[in-house]
Amino acid sequence: MNNINLIGRLTRDPEPVEGTETPLTRMRLAVAGKTDDDTLFIDVVAFTKLATSCAEHLSKGRQVAVTGKLRYREWETDEGSRRSAHSVIADRVDFLG
């Protein structure tokens, strides 16, 4: 089962992505650990109505709870370097504070 639940603060304003058929918004979430060195920075992507709502109502510093699925992707840059990244595909975003 691929489920993830996170609570954290947005590190910047949500970024709606233009030019896609389905509304899409990217966010970065800072999830606090026991110390500052333990803080995780997680990329979150929302689609459809959730994407629109996040883009309209959230801003940097806002605390949110995200429920979704962990996604891993790999790609090759134009220069031939291999890259990879994890992100969360949001199923739900609760606006907390």
How would you portray this structure in words?
It is a single chain. The chain is mainly beta and 97 residues long. The protein has a single domain (4-95), classed as OB fold (Dihydrolipoamide Acetyltransferase, E2P), CATH 2.40.50.140. It has one helix and six strands; from the N terminus they run E-E-E-E-H-E-E. It has one helix at 48-57; strands at 4-10, 15-16, 24-31, 40-47, 63-76, 82-95. A five-stranded mixed β-barrel has the order 1-3-4-6-5. The N and C termini lie far apart (29 Å). The model has no long low-confidence stretch (mean pLDDT 94).
What CATH architecture label applies?
A: Beta Barrel
Please bin the fraction of helical residues: 10-25%
β-strand percent reads over 45%
- Which homologous superfamily in CATH is the superfamily? Nucleic acid-binding proteins
Whole-number count of domains: 1
How would the blueprint of this fold be written?
Elements: E1 4-10, E2 15-16, E3 24-31, E4 40-47, H1 48-57, E5 63-76, E6 82-95
Parallel strand pairs: 4-6
Antiparallel strand pairs: 1-3, 1-5, 2-3, 3-4, 5-6
